[in-house]
Amino acid sequence: MKNIELPRKVLVGEDAVYEVDEVVAELDLQGKPLILCDEKTGEIAGETVAVEVNGEVTIAEDVTDKTLDELKEKVKRDNAQYVVGVGGGKILDASKIISFESKLPLISVPTSASHDGIASPQASLKRDRPLSVGVHCPLGVICDTKIIAKAPRRLLASGCADAISNYTAVLDWKLAHDEKGEYYGDYAAALSSMSAEIVMNKAQDIYDDISVLVEALISSGVAIGIAGSSRPCSGSEHMFSHTLDIICEEPALHGEQCGVGAIVMAYLHDAEWRRIRNALKKCKAPTNAKDLRIGEDLIVEALVKAHEVRERHTILRAGITEGKARQAAEESGVI
Ligand SMILES: [Zn+2]
User: Fold this and answer.
1) How far is the CA of 237 from the centre of ligand 1 (A)?
2) pLDDT tens digits for 144-191?
3) Are residues 85 and 51 in the same domain?
4) Distance 190 CA to ligand 1 centre (A)
5) What is the DSSP string of 272-295?
6) Residues 292-331, buried b or exposed e (16+ Cβ, 10 A)?
7) What single-letter DSSP state applies at residue 136?
8) Residue 3 alpha carbon to ligand 1 centre in Å
9) What is the extent of the structural domain holding 53?
């Protein structure tokens, strides 16, 4: 049985944030919302959202298990009927978890485009393990391109890299199908690959029209929804990134690490790793250990350990040796 989950309403465009009240009405959401943001995203968009839907913002600075519990309590106390997440990675992930666990619908209002979680049924809070958990996908997604275009360039570059990394995720998925008979969905795979292709092809001018990146990340989320798992957008390159999150004191951004991982994994797949590297460069995303500010030995260690982080058949299969990891990283210019 397949369980496909998709957003019902997606709005992408300038000043979209002023339409949030109409989206709420269209989705027939009534009652009080919990509008979650941090100090900064509150200023950028949260206050506007609050005016539009006649609510108040709730500021969450540091998202921990404790704050999540407190916020769920607040939802009950205030009798909130839906959740609006206004922010980047952490706030959107927290909003997804709160809405899921409180059984309330969610509207996602990203203030940046740093990863494909904008519209996906996954949340990846670094709780005990930095892996994603299954939640519901947002019922509505409102992407104000005027706001997102002003997000820090590093975050947007990370989003480009996350989209580009779909390239190796799909190769891994196909491999798992061929070698292990794992379910493989052509439609979800094609949609995911297309996001990577479009961002790679438009890499040179990607920041001239941010809606291209936004749509690529939304489509990635939709591919995840169709596949019913993160498979189409998360393979060995993501396992590499999750491992860096565990072993590094100061890991880089999720998308940044996945992009660099995609270079090495494409090399191992004997695929177009140079094309990936060039596209990442054009987007001003990291392409090597130095750009990530992560030591070369940690990169090699992450490549050796990545297969252990989750049970998912990829090009790493039962793991690669340190020699092989070092060679792949060196030859692909990552170290
Ligand atoms: Zn990702």
Assistant:
1) 9
2) 999 999 999 999 999 999 999 999 999 999 999 999 999 999 999 999
3) yes
4) 17
5) -HHHHHHHHHHTT---SHHHHT--
6) bebeeebbbbbbbbbbebbebbbbbeeebeeeebbebbee
7) P
8) 21
9) 9-149
Q: Are residues 14 and 131 in the same domain?
A: yes
Same domain as 87, residue 157: no
96 and 206 in a common domain:
no
Please state whether beta strands 122-123 and 140-144 pair in parallel, antiparallel, or not at all (unpaired): unpaired
**Domain end (from 124, 149, 174):** 149
Report, in angstroms and rounded to the nearest whole number, the Rg of the chain calculated over CA atoms: 19
Q: Is residue 3 part of a domain?
A: no
CA of 9 to the centre of ligand 1 (A): 22
Q: Which two tokens stand for residue 50?
A: 């609050």
Round to whole Å and give the CA distance between 257 and 130: 13
Measured in whole angstroms, the distance separating CA 143 from the mean position of its chain's CA atoms is 15
Is residue 229 a contact partner of residue 5, using CB atoms and an 8 Å limit?
A: no
CATH, residue 303: 1.20.1090.10
Query: Same domain, yes or no, for 230 and 138?
Result: no
- Give the angle 78-83-85 at the CA atoms, nearest 5°: 125
Instruction: Report the C-alpha gap between 57 and 46 in whole angstroms.
Output: 6
Q: How far is the CA of 36 from the centre of ligand 1 (A)?
A: 22
Q: Both 142 and 172 in a single domain?
A: no
Overall pTM surpassing 0.90 (yes/no): yes
Residues 172 and 52 in one domain: no
Average pLDDT of 23-48?
A: 96
Q: Please state the domain count of the chain.
A: 2
211 CA to middle of ligand 1, Å?
Answer: 18
Measured in Å, residue 254 CA sits from the centre of ligand 1 at: 6
- How many other CB atoms are found less than 10 A from the CB of residue 165? 35
